[in-house]
From TrEMBL:
Its EC number(s): 3.6.1.-
Lineage: Bacteria, Pseudomonadati, Pseudomonadota, Betaproteobacteria, Burkholderiales
Natural source organism: Comamonas testosteroni (Pseudomonas testosteroni)
InterPro entries: ITPase-like_fam, Maf-like
Keyword Ribosomal protein: no
Entry-linked Gene3D superfamilies: 3.90.950.10
Official protein name in the record: 7-methyl-GTP pyrophosphatase
CDD domains on file: Maf (cd00555)
A biological-process GO annotation: nucleotide metabolic process
Domain of life of the organism encoding this protein: Bacteria
HAMAP family attached to this UniProt entry: Maf
Length: 202
């Protein structure tokens, strides 16, 4: 496949199939021009589907949904699913649900699975991967949880905490070979997939 970066411009448009501000900020670090498109994908887990499988399926589904609408573009799809006791955790949405999630995670180790897919309908290119990050939470009391949630209000974050912000104070350890995966987009793996699609990166 020929190089797709010519004179500082992409020959094919690059699209992030997500409206997440966290993924948009992460992708902008690569200094490539891109636009964002909201993928219309049902995120309901399938019966018997593991959190790992769910993250991969949704990443692929999001990339393909947007690629069908923009066949000449290279599309990135991604999805993150936290796993606790083998079950997926959703974004809390409210203070009450975030409080309950952090109580459940207190003193526990859990996995955050972040799926990423790069697709181009016109060329038939599609490759995907999952990056799993192990996170161990400190023992948290209700006062610590309340102070944190009032300070950062991470209600749109899977797992009810922002590791890139004050949420790092809730943790004992993070184990990962692709550190931005926990924020929402594994940039090391994303770069590998973009190169495979023909995009030239520094």
């Amino acid at each position: 496949m020929p190089d797709l970066l010519i004179a500082g411009r992409l020959e094919r448009p690059l699209i992030l199939g997500s409206t997440s501000r966290y993924r948009r900020e992460l992708l902008s670090r690569l200094q490539l021009p891109f636009e964002t498109v909201s993928p219309e994908v049902d995120e309901t887990p399938h019966s018997g589907e593991t959190p790992y499988e769910l993250s991969l399926r949704l990443a692929v589904a999001k990339a393909q949904a947007v690629a069908q609408l923009h066949p000449g573009a290279i599309v990135i799809g991604s999805d993150q699913v936290p796993e606790l006791d083998g079950q997926p955790l959703s974004k809390p949405g409210t203070h009450e649900r975030a409080t309950e999630q952090l109580r459940q995670m207190s003193g526990r180790q859990m996995n955050f699975h972040t799926g990423v897919c790069v697709s181009c309908a016109e060329t038939g290119f599609i490759e995907s991967s999952v990056v799993t990050v192990q996170v161990r939470f400190r023992e948290l009391n209700d006062l610590e949880i309340e102070r944190y949630l009032r300070a950062e209000q991470p209600y749109d974050c899977a797992g009810s905490a922002k590791s890139e912000g004050l949420g790092i104070a809730l943790l004992d350890a993070i184990v990962s070979d692709d550190p931005t995966a926990l924020i929402g987009l594994p940039l090391i793996r994303t770069c590998q997939l973009l190169r495979a699609a023909g995009v030239v990166l520094p």
